[in-house]
Amino acid sequence: MATTSVSLPLPEPLQLQQGNTTQKWKKFKQKWSNYEIATGVAKKDEPTHVATLLTVIGEEAVNVYNTFIWDDKGNELKIEKALEKFESTNPGRTLHMNAVFFSRNLDSDESIDRYVMALKNLANTSEFGALKESLIRDWIVFGIQNTSVREKLLRDAKLTLETAIEKVASSKLTQIQLKQIKADKTTDESISSINTEKPPAKLPSKFSMIDCKFCGGRHPRNKYLCPAFGSKCQKCGLSNHFAKKCRTKETRQPKIGK
Fold first, then answer.
1. Residue 253 pLDDT > 80, yes or no?
2. With the CA atoms of 221, 224, 225 and 229 taken in that order, what torsion angle do they form, in degrees rounded to the nearest 10?
3. For residue range 83-109, what is the model confidence (pLDDT) as tens digits?
């Protein structure tokens, strides 16, 4: 007699950004328990068991799983330990805050300093522990919408939080300069079309270019076009310069607003 194969539906992914996440976790855990028994996954080896859990639990919860710090090597591949970690992180709050952190992207008109401050505030409400700084650095990379800048950051094997901030700030300065050049070109063309009696005079450059002692880059002589303007030094905590151009001998922790 031929046997009938029944295809069981996967448990719905755990959604953490809205609603009562505590109830959502309880409901998911119940469905997961039924699913692993009905499919025979519960009898599989530990790595397969955990891999199946991470496949069905959803991207938001996988991001949380990747922040867990394990007491013993190999615990990350034990299903009981993995479920204990999810339980101990208080799904009603921590999982939600972690999900908010991993969904926070850099807006096109947002400064890098404001974005980093938002990430730090979110990280402080999560349980990232010693991983906090590296996760902030990583999410600066994946949170920016400019794919070419992201690719450059990914190619830097020694990328730190400080250098990531500086490179994103420099890329934003470049975008501002390109917009200024485009605007100047449009103005030149408009004047040329109006003045038909004599050749159009070349408009003087609005600002001369300088090698900036505050950011280390080259840009027009205008503090508002300097990527370091308004930022806080990661070395001394003072404003309007990057750490690589810092002239303060003593290192002070930067003050972070609440």
1. no
2. 100
3. 988 877 655 556 666 677 777 888 777
Measured distance CA(232)–CA(192) in Å, rounded: 44
Contact present, 238 and 248 (Cβ < 8 Å): yes
**Per-residue DSSP letters for the chain?**
-PPPP--PPPPPP---SSS-HHHHHHHHHHHHHHHHHHHSGGGS-HHHHHHHHHHHS-HHHHHHHTT---SSTTGGG-HHHHHHHHHHTIIIIIHHHHHHHHT----TT--HHHHHHHHHHHHHTTT-GGGHHHHHHHHHHHH-S-HHHHHHHHT-TT--HHHHHHHHHHHHHHHHHHHHHHHHHHHHHHHHHH--SSPPPPPPPSS-EEE-TTTSSEEES-GGG-TTTT-B-TTT--BSS-GGG---SS--PPP---
Mind listing the pLDDT tens digit for each residue in 157-183?
888 888 888 888 877 665 554 555 555
Residue carrying the six token digits 């800048």: 149
How many whole angstroms separate alpha carbon 124 and alpha carbon 122? 5
**Alpha-carbon span 64 to 99, nearest angstrom:** 7
Q: Residue 96's CB: how many other CB atoms inside 10 A? A: 25
Integer Cα distance of 244 and 169 in angstroms = 14
15-24, 116-125, 173-182: lowest mean pLDDT where? 173-182
Give the whole-angstrom CA distance, residue 204 versus residue 59.
Answer: 53
Whether pLDDT at 196 is above 70: no
